[in-house]
Known about the structure:
The structure holds 2 protein chains of 2 kinds.
Chain A: H1 3-13, E1 19-23, H2 26-32, E2 39-43, H3 48-58, E3 64-69, H4 70-75, H5 78-86, E4 91-97, E5 100-101, E6 107-108, H6 117-124, E7 129-132, H7 135-147, E8 152-157, H8 172-187
Parallel strand pairs in A: 1-2, 1-3, 3-4, 4-8, 7-8
Antiparallel strand pairs in A: 5-6
Helix pairs in contact in A: 1-7, 3-5
Chain B: H1 3-15, E1 20-23, H2 30-38, E2 43-46, H3 50-62, E3 67-70, H4 73-78, H5 80-90, E4 94-99, H6 114-124, E5 128-132, H7 138-152, E6 155-160
Parallel strand pairs in B: 1-2, 1-3, 3-4, 4-6, 5-6
Helix pairs in contact in B: 1-2, 1-7, 3-5
Amino acid sequence: MKKPECIKILDRKLDQNVLVVTPTGKTYMYWEATGREAQISQLNLGLCTPVGLGLALALPHRKVVVLDGDGNLLFNLASLADVAVQNPGNLIDIVFDNECYQSCDSFPSVTAKGVQLESIAKGCGIKNAVTVRTLDDFEAILAKALTGNELVLIIAKVEPGEDPVELPRQEARENKYRFVRHVERTENIRIINPYSRRRKKDFLPSS
Amino acid sequence: MKKESVDAIISGLKLAGINFVSMLPDSDFTDAQKAVMADKHFTCVPVSNEAIGFGVCAGAWLGGKKPALLITTDGIMASAFPLTTLNMQKNIPVLMIVPYRGSLGDGIWFVGPMAFTTEPILKDLQVAYTVINKTAEVTQTIRDAQLSAEAWLRPTAVLLAGEVIFEEA
Lengths: 207, 169
């Protein structure tokens, strides 16, 4: 099973309004190539799943899908325990486990040495932690997770190696603004407040 | 921590519009942290290390919440990575409330080094901060720090010192 093939399934299955959290590297670039705006991207080591947790708790009526990696998750493995305790039913955490640090010449991660993320997640209390090795199984568990209202952690065992992809044109701040404006528009809320202290009498009430 | 300090912190968080709090315990801060957890106004997310807390708060902010972190002085050091690669890189705000261990008046030997590391680290990590020693200033200062965090899209920190955190010797 290759990661780009999983991404194609995700692109087919996920509604445009599903909020997607991605790490740095090719996973972000594959997802960016799908042209969706509801993606907060380039979350570095150990931060992908925590950001997904905060987002899921802030917007419990929206599906949040995290596309994490084994190396990224391992950096802050305790975040699995914190996710388990909060147990947000709208969070689907997908870990693409290629058993290596792909961007570092495929240097092996500990999952190549027998460490089982599913066992760790279940030990934390995430009962819907599943390891999948085929595209059919990946699509089936994803479909089930999207229709349900329970926390699901999918460890997708993927082959090392990446396919060429179009280089994104945006950097981290532009990505943040695009994501925030999407949430503001779809939730009818204001998040960015550049004039937090001003004389109210100078402005319209709606501002 | 005295009850007046705890009440002032809670009042400041509410005045600032904070509705989402992440935290990791600190021995001299647990009175305030327990009070926040017991208050249904706040969504509380205890975490297993402060770096996770910065990620959780960033996610909450991206989802429209107004987050704050109640963390230790050494938690700032543990969070240099998310402060750099998340808050600084993307300009994501968060309010940090920190009992300033290592400020003058602290009488525990092992926090002494924090007198020399805490403020330089905050400056390096581009966190605007203020130190308050008087309980009467806590509530308004927390609100001010949040107003600036919102407008600047940066983390801000309120370091609690003096009578705010220290009991009589």
